[in-house]
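Key idea: predict the complex, not the pieces.
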Amino acid sequence: MAATKSIPGSMSVIVQKFGGTSVANLERIRNAALRTKSEYDSGNNVVVVVSAMAGTTNQLVQWTGQAAELHDTREYDAVVSAGEQITAGLFAVILQEMGIPARSWLGWQLPIRTDSAHGSARIQEIDVQAIQQRFEERQIAVIAGFQGLSVDNRITTLGRGGTDTSAVAFATALKAERCDIFTDVDGIYTSDPRIVTRARKLDKITYEEMLELASLGAKVLQTRSVELAMNYGVRLQVLSSFNDTPGTFVVDEDEIVEKKIVSGIAYSRDEAKITLRRVADRPGIAAAVFGPLADANINVDMIVQNISQSDKSTDLTFTVTRSHLERAVAVLEKARPEIDYEELKADEDVTKVSVIGVGMRSHVGVAKRMFATLAERGINIQVISTSEIKVSVLIEEEYTELALRALHTAYGLDDG
Amino acid sequence: MAATKSIPGSMSVIVQKFGGTSVANLERIRNAALRTKSEYDSGNNVVVVVSAMAGTTNQLVQWTGQAAELHDTREYDAVVSAGEQITAGLFAVILQEMGIPARSWLGWQLPIRTDSAHGSARIQEIDVQAIQQRFEERQIAVIAGFQGLSVDNRITTLGRGGTDTSAVAFATALKAERCDIFTDVDGIYTSDPRIVTRARKLDKITYEEMLELASLGAKVLQTRSVELAMNYGVRLQVLSSFNDTPGTFVVDEDEIVEKKIVSGIAYSRDEAKITLRRVADRPGIAAAVFGPLADANINVDMIVQNISQSDKSTDLTFTVTRSHLERAVAVLEKARPEIDYEELKADEDVTKVSVIGVGMRSHVGVAKRMFATLAERGINIQVISTSEIKVSVLIEEEYTELALRALHTAYGLDDG
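Result:
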């Protein structure tokens, strides 16, 4: 990421990202544009980064998939990037109608340089000179998010949620004071408020915690956008475009004064468990199992291997993304002669529940409290995995809500 | 139009244009792609030029209009050009799925250089080098029609029907053997077959006749595409993508052996008549009337001025596009003091009926037969206008069908 120098004495730059539901139709785009106008009228220079209107990207992805199951990802990118182009033009027109100078920018026009990994490209460099020059004329830049340009002069896209990353990349390149991510939720909660009614909105969360949440499937921010914000110290705010309450700031750990040991309880139903029974316990067994899965682009998450039995066999349990389960089973059945196992059991009725908090680094006993809380409720833990700031357990799916509520209370997160 | 030299010894180039109804969904794109495959398999190099999927452009135009009635045409172009981008990518994927090397090209990627008249830009130059190089690898180019690139690096569009012009421009630049315009009709008919059941499909029509038809509102080909084809001698074929019958060739007059005096009877309900009664008959009166209309971008078509009365006043009758009538009346009422007329009468219940044929150049009596035929049926002629190969009359709308059938018979055009 090469950032162009900021113009001395210039006004603050605010980047506003509007997600698909916030620009779902013209009325919503008008509401979003009023938020832009408000920042602009306070004397800030504003860069707006927009997603496709809700539903558009799904439709385009679906068409491309129906055109050919295995399709040229360069053509996929040409098709799916059209959605953001439409929103950017409409948003610029609506700002102009409000009397604000504005223009749309497509990825290839600046350009936004990316690598050539079509479908999940990474931004390498953004040329923001033209945008900065137009700040002098108080013009607002409306950027089509999610897209960039490869060295071959073809459109690339940044993967689902990529517009978050576009927004953070512009905030970085323009040394923006703040990057506001407008979405359909108020901010980041201590847990899913639809399940845990006593969940509270967090005023602040650390980059690290947000990263864990994002990788656990929280759809609020693309993982890469959080990494980028963390690396360049971009102040991110996640907030709703449908009300005026302040959102959640994603910030450096130092900025959080009152630290809790655990910040939130997350869960993911996007898991499936595979158990290989009575695998011959010999060196190289992990490679024999996980090599073919990796070759088939199947991500393996949690892994546990039972203690070897007297007959030199072991049980191996691990999780894959639920949508990959069928493919994973096929791969493992094909590799059965090499792996040498007695039985394969697949289970989709599982949930991964995680407690997250940077406070864990300095406090012991977090995992212990989790295990005790679940045990008290008679919830069996199937697999465990941990990181420096996270403990995850795999449980039977029907206990999901019970587990979330119990843990939320146990870690003192309940509202009021 | 700068054409790149064709590669010596290379195969023939066929340009295929598919309109919105021909690519309305994936199934139709597949059918269209089979036509491409067929040309390709016969050993030709093929360039496909595609419209947006039927309905898409209308939706995008509508959104832009709702965003702001008077909108920045540069943003309009960014929005509406997205439709062709989607089709081009999907078409390329489907060709690849059939085992044919193909890639999509957007206007800015080649580029297709146009002037900066956003919304109705004219193509200035197409760089076809990359396409020709890929012919060597037998790759098919799938071009997003309707769009180009201005000198300011912004997307331009060529006006409604502009994909026809894109196709002819590529046929010119690539010295194509033929430019096939696939649409939802079989070809060009001697009259509208929905009204004149004995109308026949023409095997051939001259560029000049097609130009008159296009300017009379026949929506089969954009006027500019016919001009371009005429100037560069591009062999155009208009044919249906829904059946395998040959279409109508648009060709040079020399190519037509058996010449008819009249080739077709056209009509347009897109007219409205305005009469200014008792206008003071003085020099400069035409400028006083038509100047303000031109300033308001209102096109005036047929004009007739009555012989001056003894009181030095005259009646002035002319037609405007029906959708402009309300605006035209407002302009004329505002200019009443300068024009000095007694009464303004507006009439929407009119139809323009035209007989067209290059044979008129060498035959007298065509207009006379038209007037006699209409008189026999008791149809009153309100305004007359003529060109070298066309006679148009304005009649009361309710006589439209009667007039068309009578003229079709009178000029010997009836089938069988």
